[in-house]
Structures are given as C-alpha cells and as structure tokens.
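Example (one chain per record):
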Amino acid sequence: MSSVISFRTISGGYAEAEVICSNDDICFYVTEPKTGILRDKGHDLDGVSLAGKILVFPSGKGSAVVQDEGLFSLKENGKLPAAMIIESPETVLVFAALLLKIPLLDSVSIEDRKKLQNGMRLRLDTDKNLLEIVE
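Predicted structure:
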C-alpha cells in the first residue's frame, strides 16, 4: 500500500530513493564532492551523505557561486541528490536544479511533509504527477 502526496513541480523528473529530512537550510558548497557528505557544524545533517537521496528541507542557503559550485562538484562525482523537496524556492536552487536536471518539488502540505521520515522510500514521477510513499 502506498500514500500519495500532492506537490508542485519546479524541475521535473523521476526518482525512487530513500528520504532524508532536515529542518535546516542546506548549502551544497559544504558537501564533500567525492562522498556527498554534508560538513556543516551544527546542521542537523552534518556528517550525513546526501548522495542519491530524496532531500526534504526548507530551502537553500549561500550565494549563487557557492551553491552552484557545490552542486556542480557533486554532479561531477556522481553524488547529487536524487531529488529535492523544499518549502521555499529560492532562485539559485531553482536555477541549479533546472540546469542539472534534479527533480525539485515544492508546495507539499504541512500534513504530508510530517509523514515523510528519514529512511522511508519515496517514488516521484512528475510526468505522472506522482509522489508516493513506497511501503
């Protein structure tokens, strides 16, 4: 059985992966390009690999140069997130997601966001308007 979640597509695509949730904004510049591990003291995901995961977080942080360089370095090393679900779209993150073809979603209700837990599996297919928890 699965649970379907409504959303708005910013950057389309398909992903099925493990969820990792954060209450903190993310600066991708402070991730290790070869591992995808976030290195940000005090961040709730410090020491955790973002590679291949569906990230659920509030928004990005940092300048355009910093965010873009961080995400491009992750792409070069095959360590990009599988997809991102954010609360507040910001121009830099939206541009990077579109350019790098990372599925990026927003407008997930507070109730549905609360259902998303670390370690669960999500499937998203923006062509089918599908975001579901895979049981």
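Caption: The longest helix spans residues 64-76.
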